[in-house]
Amino acid sequence: MQTQVAIIGGGPSGLLLSQILHLRGIQSVIVEQKSRAYVLGRIRAGVLEQGLVDMLRAAGVGDRMDREGLPHEGFDIAHKGKRQRIDMAGLTGGKSVMVYGQTEVTLDLYDARDQMDGIIVDEAEDVTPHDLNTDNPYITYEKGGETHRIDCDFVAGCDGFHGVSRKAIPATILREYEKVYPFGWLGVLSETPPVSHELIYNHSDRGFALCSMRNDNLSRYYVQCAIQEEVSNWSDDRFWEELKSRLPADAARDLVMGPSIEKSIAPLRSFVAEPLSYGRLFLAGDAGHIVPPTGAKGLNLAASDIHYLSEAFIRFYEEGSDTGLKNYSETALKRIWKAMRFSWWMTTLLHKFPENEGFGDRIQDTELEYLFSSKAAQTALAENYVGLPY
Ligand code: RFL
Ligand code: PHB
Questions:
Q1: Average pLDDT over residues 63-91
Q2: Ligand closest in space to the Cα of 347
Q3: What is the pLDDT of residues 222-265, one digit of tens each?
Q4: Quick one: 54 exposed, middle or buried, by C-beta within 10 A (0-12, 13-18, 19+)?
Q5: Is the minimum distance from the CB of 112 to ligand 1 under 6 angstroms?
Q6: To test ligand 2's pocket by mutation, which of 212, 221, 290 has the most ligand atoms within 8 angstroms of CB?
Q7: Which domains does the chain have, with CATH numbers?
């Protein structure tokens, strides 16, 4: 096979890139290692910034999101029995976010790619990029007992944190920055009405908890858990009891419990790889960076990477200019580091840190009290939560 941009990974980054390029007449092929059912079964992000919402609409995949998504203009932070609403719209001149699951975004993108006869190879094994530092890169993969080859102009590494693309950058060039947190998030999806019409981020002595949602009868809840915790140790009853113990009294009273339809544990990590390009390879999304989910930035950062990268490819093919491609890594990293800082800050603000006894706990309480009392502090939080400009 021959194409212009070979895309490794059929998650939101790869699909969105392929869709945007298609609309500008640029060919691409996506090579994904898992089955489509597996990719669509993953429950992940739920909060979309305005920038991503606009990109989905411009890419012709915003209709269902506009019908079924829930625009949110604020969220609550709870601490020591008090709930403080962060008036996102009021503090940012009218900006808001959209609650619409990553699973739905991915499904809408797959539908659009299918309608436009986009090529997505699934269940591809042993995907390997080659000759990235030449003008004729290619990728190979195994499927149906045969080795396949795709010749291309460029390779987009959209294969997530555990993918092969980042590993193709020589260790002498790649720098990695990492912080692993000493806890994870245990998440439950349940077909119950959300406890509140807006998200509640809870700090408590027993640890962090988040009340989120997908729609009026689908709730998504998380509790901070020990890093070595196993899902099998968490019955639904145990989960609900733990969640209730971390919520303010009114929310604990209003909580509607039911059977879980998904339950999983995610570790929390901050990670950045630099640079995001090597020869004709460009990394985007989780392939290049990971944030802890506290600030709801992972999917949104993937989208801003795809914004910069798609613009760079369009300039290359339409104007013959490689300036955007040369600058991609530096441009994308500026925004990535700001979201890194914000996600780290929000994680530090709201979680129980095992090593934080005495002084650290008092500083954390004081930081939350300051946030509750200061419009300036709330404005800084709101400005970052709705998303910094591209
Ligand atoms: P993905 O989604 O991991 O997709 C990468 C794809 O590449 C495939 N792949 C390969 N394909 C071929 N060859 C290989 N060798 C391959 N290796 C891997 C994989 O199968 C997969 O299909 O990365 P992408 O597209 O960059 O998207 C990133 C987002 O998925 C991620 O940042 C978010 O889910 C993070 N995140 C959140 N982000 C938000 O913006 N808002 C949120 O509210 C939010 N909540 C979350 C989250 C992530 C979570 N977890 C589970 C980590 C909540 C959770 C619990
Ligand atoms: C979610 O709904 O899954 C979600 C919402 C906000 C976050 C993280 C996850 O910060």
A1: 97
A2: 2
A3: 999 999 999 999 999 999 999 999 999 999 999 999 999 999 99
A4: middle
A5: no
A6: 212
A7: 5-72+97-178+269-347 (3.50.50.60), 182-268+353-386 (3.30.9.10)
